[in-house]
Write a structure and sequence with these properties.
The complex is a heterodimer of chains A (about 200) and B (about 575).
Chain A: H1 2-23, H2 46-61, H3 65-73, E1 78-87, H4 94-108, E2 112-114, H5 117-133, E3 150-163, E4 166-179, E5 185-198, E6 202-203
Parallel strand pairs in A: 1-2, 1-3
Antiparallel strand pairs in A: 3-4, 4-5
Helix pairs in contact in A: 2-4
Chain B: H1 3-23, H2 34-39, H3 43-53, H4 61-74, H5 78-94, E1 98-99, H6 100-108, H7 122-140, H8 145-170, H9 182-194, H10 209-221, H11 225-246, H12 253-268, H13 272-281, E2 292-301, E3 307-317, E4 322-328, H14 333-346, H15 352-361, H16 364-369, E5 374-377, H17 382-388, H18 390-393, E6 398-405, E7 412-419, E8 422-432, H19 433-469, H20 477-493, E9 507-516, E10 518-528, E11 533-542, E12 546-555, E13 563-571
Parallel strand pairs in B: 2-12
Antiparallel strand pairs in B: 2-9, 3-4, 3-6, 4-5, 7-8, 7-10, 8-9, 10-11, 12-13
Helix pairs in contact in B: 1-20, 3-4, 4-5, 5-7, 7-8, 7-10, 8-10, 10-11, 11-12, 19-20
The chains are: A alpha/beta (about 200), B alpha+beta (about 575).
Chain lengths: ~200, ~575
């Protein structure tokens, strides 16, 4: 009985202490390396995008089509990145992923890539403007664009399995490279990511 | 102290208590709620009311985002609406881990002092609204249409993940529920004490047939026929296995889902045998002509019924050795009647079990009073209650507040689709958010009153102990005033949690039909019980896969004169 009384007296102090501690929480911001992964949830993040892009482009350039093209054409192959459809359950910044793919291709030095339709149209408008306003020496001619030899496209899929506080998320990225002259699929790559998230039902 | 002074003080105490009970009978909004303002078409004031009453970081931050999202959706500001809906989903996800410190604080204060975490049925509604917003954005920005359509389908996939989990937890509509967990067994024993047994059967929110159906529509629109097939199939099974019955929907809805299923199976190809078997079994399902395309019209109607506060006075009956709760009804006649009905339906001693108990405990008058009181006999626990000081703490009574739901009032009798001046088809109720809200409130009612009872007793007891510790003698004038002031503090903090997403529709009607490809003028005629007809027309570009038109029709409750129809989405 005495113990109970002591406990009852202690409860308000414990509650106050807890509340005081939670009230001390404030916003804190620190600068960290952009390559450092900060996984706050099992959602697709910047690191996933970068790792998948690098792994897939490395795999793509290891296939025989690069050397075959060099042998037959005598120049580096030009690639156009078409659509990568997000068929997953997460809103993934596909543009960011496409940019990671482009950077990985350019960094390899084994292939060039050409701008997509939207960018091409913008550049053509600029060239039209040059014809009217730029000096003859600095004008860029129309009809001198480099055509793409190969088209890169693909999909991002995912599925989720969860029970209680545990959730497993599985992402699969499929990319394919098509020869634009023959429609031959010269490369098909696949990269899978699996993430496990565990959450507690209670916390302070 | 003389007896007359004691009587005067007692009278004063009772008067103050009554004043407090009425003063505390408040809903969160002193004037019109955002939903009521939206009903009247006053979007600017509705937005002001939301930003004035809810804060981005306060306990009602979820409502801040939900209500603003609804408003922006109705104003056709789809991008901003989606931003708020995404924030709402992030918040709901963060609420998974419950804060122990907040649980403790709630126990000593009241549910309104805790963070509002929303209801399970909000999540499908959020994903649906987001998907409709993305579809509308696709229509308004054709160069980015593909990515917006993909984004709408992502919402449907997230919805599927949520519903799969809900189904795992509740059993869904596949089989008869047999919950043999310890909690369920305890509940089965306790339920007769607080609510009539048959009232709470089969009212769990177990899955969402409408969400699956709409998912099917959106997948069909993007020509993802296999995903559409799965969603239509799930919708059909859920409607058939109890959803129609639970939410009082017309029996033909499952056949409508079947029609969608047959259509996408045909488009997908490879299901010839299954199609033949299904068509043989369901010969009444009409097959579309090849020259026609499909159109889905969704009509959201009104706003969901409002949660309000019901006050109860808790006192101790020393003769019968029982705690007695009596409803203190306030408001207009309609509100007072609703409060009494809610109390007698859920809490009053109206079951045979309660009547026998009252008869055993007291006189025959208690049996007759059963409809206006709730008696909790303490029996052998009475002496412990006296020792603990509970009975003394309840000298002036204690206020308990629970929620009740205003009666569902639908002034709409039917809605029809008219094309080129001719009646084409009828919009049928595919989902009743009103009944869903009501069933959710019923399900939680007995738990809510138990929690409120325990909370108010703890508060009354703590206050009494505090006075004792402070050395205040409780039988003199100062003591009584001190006790009164603690009762006042307890009464002020004892508020029921009436917070809710108010701008959700009351009912969702839908029609799926076929029209020739090309531009079509479609009219929705909404028939009110007063005989008045609301007409709303839109030009719709019907394309080969699936065209969608989404509207929200508001009818004010007091006067059917004020009506508003907002077309939120008219898209190819």
């Amino acid at each position: 009985m005495k113990n109970n009384r002591t406990l009852i007296k202690f409860v308000p102090f414990a509650v106050l202490a807890t509340l005081s501690l939670s009230a001390c929480k404030s916003t804190k911001v620190e600068r960290i390396d952009a390559n450092q992964e900060v996984a706050l949830s099992d959602k697709w993040n910047g690191k996933d995008s970068q790792l998948v892009a690098e792994a897939m482009i490395s795999d793509m350039l290891s296939f025989p089509w690069v050397n075959d093209h060099l042998k037959n054409e005598g120049s580096r192959p030009a690639i156009i990145v078409q659509t990568v459809r997000n068929k997953s359950h997460q809103h993934i910044a596909v543009d960011t992923f496409l940019n990671d793919l482009k950077r990985a291709i350019l960094r390899s030095g084994q292939a060039d890539f050409v701008a997509n339709q939207e960018i091409r149209n913008e550049i053509r408008e600029e060239r039209k403007d040059q014809e009217l306003n730029a000096s003859l020496e600095t004008q860029n001619e129309m009809g001198q664009e480099q055509g793409a030899d190969y088209a890169l496209s693909g999909t991002i899929n995912s599925f989720v399995d969860q029970q209680g506080g545990k959730r497993v998320t599985f992402y699969q990225v499929d990319l394919r490279l098509i020869d634009m002259t023959s429609n031959r699929e010269v490369w098909n790559g696949q990269k899978k990511i699996q993430k496990l998230q565990e959450r507690s039902g209670y916390g302070f | 102290m003389s007896a007359s002074i004691k009587k005067v003080i007692l009278l004063f105490v009772v008067l103050v208590q009554l004043c407090l009970l009425s003063a505390c009978n408040l809903t969160p909004f002193q004037q019109l709620s955002p939903a009521q303002l939206v009903q009247q078409g006053n979007f600017v004031k509705a937005k002001q009311t939301i930003t004035n009453n809810y804060s981005k970081s306060g306990n009602e931050r979820l409502l801040y985002h939900l209500e603003l999202a609804s408003l922006f959706h109705l104003e056709k500001n789809f991008a901003q609406s989606n931003q708020h809906l995404s924030d709402a989903l992030t918040l709901i996800d963060s609420f998974y881990t419950q804060s122990i410190s907040q649980l403790v604080m709630t126990q000593f204060s009241g549910p309104t002092y805790a963070t509002f975490k929303g209801e399970a049925y909000y999540v499908p509604q959020i994903h649906i609204m987001k998907a409709l917003n993305f579809s509308a954005l696709a229509k308004s920005q054709p160069t980015k249409a593909d990515s917006y359509f993909d984004a709408a389908l992502i919402e449907m996939r997230q919805l599927d993940v949520f519903l799969a989990q809900l189904k795992d937890e509740t059993g869904g509509y596949n089989s008869v529920q047999t919950d043999d967990s310890l909690t369920a067994k305890i509940n089965r024993v306790l339920t007769p004490v607080f609510t009539p047994t048959d009232l709470l059967n089969n009212i769990d929110y177990k899955d969402d047939a409408f969400a699956h159906f709409l998912s099917g529509v959106l997948f069909e629109q993007s020509a993802e026929f296999d995903s559409a097939r799965l969603q239509y199939q799930r919708a059909m099974q859920i409607y058939e296995n109890g959803f129609e019955q639970q939410y009082k929907l017309p029996a033909e809805i499952s056949n409508k889902a079947l029609a969608g299923l047959l259509r996408v199976m045909q488009h997908a190809g490879g299901y010839e045998t299954e199609l033949l078997a299904l068509r043989k079994k369901h010969q009444d399902i009409v097959q579309n002509s090849n020259n026609l395309a499909n159109v889905t019209v969704i009509q959201n109607i009104g706003i969901a019924p409002q949660r309000k506060q019901l006050n109860l006075l808790l006192k101790a009956d020393t003769q019968a050795k029982a705690l007695v709760m009596t409803p203190i009804v306030f408001g207009n006649t309609k509100e007072r009647r609703a409060q009494m009905r809610w109390f007698s339906m859920l809490h009053a001693d109206t079951s045979l079990f309660d009547m026998i108990q009252n008869y055993m405990l007291g006189d025959i008058g208690d049996v007759a009073m059963g409809v206006v009181t709730k008696r909790i006999p303490l029996g052998p626990l009475w002496d412990d209650a006296v020792k603990l000081g509970i009975i003394d703490a309840l000298e002036f009574g204690s206020r308990i507040s629970v929620t009740y739901l205003e009666p569902i009032d639908t002034p709409i009798t039917k809605s029809e689709i008219w094309v080129a001046g001719k009646r084409h088809t009828q919009l049928l109720p595919y989902h009743s958010i009103s009944l869903l809200t009501l069933q959710d409130a019923l399900k939680k009612s007995h738990n809510e009153i138990q929690m409120a009872l325990v909370r108010e007793l703890s508060k009354a007891l703590s206050a009494k102990k505090l006075l004792k510790e402070a050395g205040v003698k409780q039988d003199n004038l100062l003591g009584r005033l001190a006790k009164l002031s603690t009762s006042v503090v307890n009464a002020v903090t004892a508020s029921a949690d009436t917070r809710q997403w108010q701008t959700l529709p009351s009912e969702i009607r839908l029609a799926q039909f076929s029209l020739p490809i090309g531009e079509q003028q479609i009219t929705i005629k909404t028939y009110l019980s007063s005989g008045r007809i609301i007409e709303h027309s839109e030009k719709l570009m019907v394309n080969k896969n699936m065209s969608l038109w989404h509207t929200h029709t508001f009818v004010t409750k007091n006067s059917e004169q004020a009506t508003l129809t907002k077309s939120t989405l008219n898209m190819e």
